[in-house]
């Protein structure tokens, strides 16, 4: 197409007539007849330069929103995002357990087992709260092969998370020493008659059993401590007392024995193994005549012995540590002395101030007191207007009744087809009492929390071989924040035999209860009318 001064012809669309085109141009405020083209440039006509006219155009200012409209706009935006927040963070808590839920008071019962302390806190699959782990002993008249083991329950409701059943009786457990897999969770180390094992806290599966190079189990091990990573596999090693006379280095990752450290044969037994802050090991040596001495070994010597079995170990005699039996809460100290053998036992509880001056004392006859638990709570102002915190102690005690009942030959301890003829069993009743010692200014108050009847069955009238056993109740109390709400719960367990009728026989059935009580939040209610 040749260029000309008459412009460029563009055909109209079929749907648009000439008259419609004119109307559209006029409606836009532009008339084609008023447009003038200047001299063509590069063969094309162009419009005049309007840049100098832009400054003459007045831009209408935008009115600012009033305060009322701003509030309305903000509120509407908030309402739009509120359903998203509810759907993503609030509703899923009930279904997927992705956020913390407050724990209420609960109780769970477990048949045919006797719990042993202490109570261990472990992590579950969801990290919203702590779960609980305990070792247990089966009924001594149960015929089950695997009647002992380790039980884990959910911290929010007491439901069973897992149950690790085994034949040998577990005597000790600690879930705060080792992370065998470097997964960020501490595993549970369990000591029993066959040796030492590590249990994964979420699944309840055994990770390893302590074993020799040949794969044989290693009995007579004590609860180990954690030491340095000697074999450089990324996991700390364990050091345990072996056969009450030697030290054994165990791989924390696999459970394999790495080195046996023989100590001088001057001790009939060693125990209380611990790692000092100065990077040395301390242990107590019991000699002939029950004399005790404390020895110290440097970690450098331990590592040298691991690298070279012929290396020498230097033992340093250190001063025996004072046997601190007191429990401290605030500026007060509590000392519990259990005297004699139960049921002819007595307990003396003494309270001292910070200057070791006796404040008060109580004596309990035919009683044994378990390990006390101290507590410190922020004050509830209507009750305690002059203190910032409330201090005190929780004590659990067993009080023995005078009489024991001899069970008849046809009385069955557990549901069995054959009555008991070859053994004599006695039924004994004790009263389990839980009390609070509350410290307020210079005033000391004792409040009863609970009183429960406990029935023991003993093999013979002298309270030998009894179940449940008071020694297993020593660490049956724990105060902890299970749901991370900065309020403390009281966790406790208790075991007893209870009588039920089965086929016309009086049957005594072993049962244990685990309780969680929101102690700190319920504390004002306990004292409301006191």
From TrEMBL:
The chain crosses the membrane at residues 71-91. Residues 29-41 have a biased composition (Polar residues). Keywords: Membrane, Transmembrane, Transmembrane helix. Residues 1-46 are annotated as: Disordered. Its main location: membrane. Signal peptide: none annotated. One of its GO terms (cellular component) is membrane. It is found in: Membrane. It is a single-pass membrane protein. Residues 150-313 form the FAM234A/B beta-propeller domain. This is FAM234A/B beta-propeller domain-containing protein.
């Amino acid at each position: 197409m040749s260029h000309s001064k008459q412009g460029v012809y563009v055909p109209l669309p079929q749907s648009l007539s000439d008259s419609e085109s004119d109307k559209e141009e006029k409606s836009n405020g532009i008339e084609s007849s008023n447009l003038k083209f200047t001299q063509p440039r590069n063969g094309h006509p162009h419009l005049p330069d309007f840049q100098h006219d832009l400054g003459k155009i007045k831009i209408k200012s935008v009115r600012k929103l009033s305060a009322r409209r701003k509030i309305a706009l903000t509120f509407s935006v908030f309402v739009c995002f509120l359903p998203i927040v509810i759907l993503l963070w609030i509703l899923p808590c009930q279904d997927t357990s992705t956020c913390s839920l407050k724990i209420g008071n609960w109780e769970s019962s477990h048949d045919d087992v006797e719990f042993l302390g202490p109570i261990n806190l472990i992590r579950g699959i969801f990290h919203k709260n702590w779960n609980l782990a305990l070792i247990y002993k089966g009924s001594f008249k149960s015929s089950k092969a695997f009647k002992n083991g380790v039980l884990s329950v959910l911290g929010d409701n007491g439901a069973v998370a897992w149950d690790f059943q085994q034949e040998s009786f577990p005597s000790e457990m600690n879930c705060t020493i080792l992370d065998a897999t470097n997964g960020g969770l501490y595993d549970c180390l369990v000591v029993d008659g066959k040796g030492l094992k590590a249990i994964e806290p979420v699944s309840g599966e055994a990770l390893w059993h302590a074993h020799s190079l040949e794969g044989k189990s290693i009995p007579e091990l004590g609860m180990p401590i954690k030491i340095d990573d000697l074999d450089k596999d990324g996991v700390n090693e364990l050091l345990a007392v072996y056969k009450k006379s030697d030290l054994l280095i165990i791989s924390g990752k696999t459970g394999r024995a790495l080195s046996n450290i023989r100590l001088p044969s001057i001790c009939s037994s060693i125990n209380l193994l611990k790692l000092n802050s100065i990077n040395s090991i301390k242990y107590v040596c019991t000699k002939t005549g029950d004399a005790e001495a404390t020895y110290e070994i440097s970690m450098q010597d331990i590592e040298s012995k691991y690298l070279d079995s012929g290396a020498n170990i230097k033992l340093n005699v250190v001063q025996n540590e004072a046997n601190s039996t007191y429990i401290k809460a605030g500026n007060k100290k509590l000392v519990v002395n259990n005297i004699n053998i139960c049921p002819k036992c007595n307990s003396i509880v003494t309270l001292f101030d910070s200057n070791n001056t006796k404040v008060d004392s109580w004596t309990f006859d035919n009683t044994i007191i378990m390990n006390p638990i101290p507590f410190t709570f922020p004050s509830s102002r209507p009750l305690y207007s002059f203190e910032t915190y409330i201090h005190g102690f929780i004590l659990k005690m067993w009080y023995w009744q005078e009489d024991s009942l001899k069970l008849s030959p046809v009385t069955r301890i557990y549901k069995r087809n054959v009555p008991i003829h070859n053994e004599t069993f006695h039924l004994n009743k004790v009263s389990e009492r839980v009390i609070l010692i509350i410290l307020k200014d210079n005033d000391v108050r004792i409040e009863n929390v609970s009183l429960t009847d406990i029935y023991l069955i003993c093999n013979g009238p002298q309270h030998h071989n009894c179940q449940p056993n008071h020694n297993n109740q020593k660490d049956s109390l724990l105060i902890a924040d299970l749901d991370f709400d900065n309020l403390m719960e009281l966790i406790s367990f208790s075991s007893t035999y209870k009588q039920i009728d089965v086929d016309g026989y009086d049957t005594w059935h072993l049962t244990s209860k685990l309780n969680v009580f929101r102690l700190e939040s319920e504390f004002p209610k306990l004292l409301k009318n006191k």
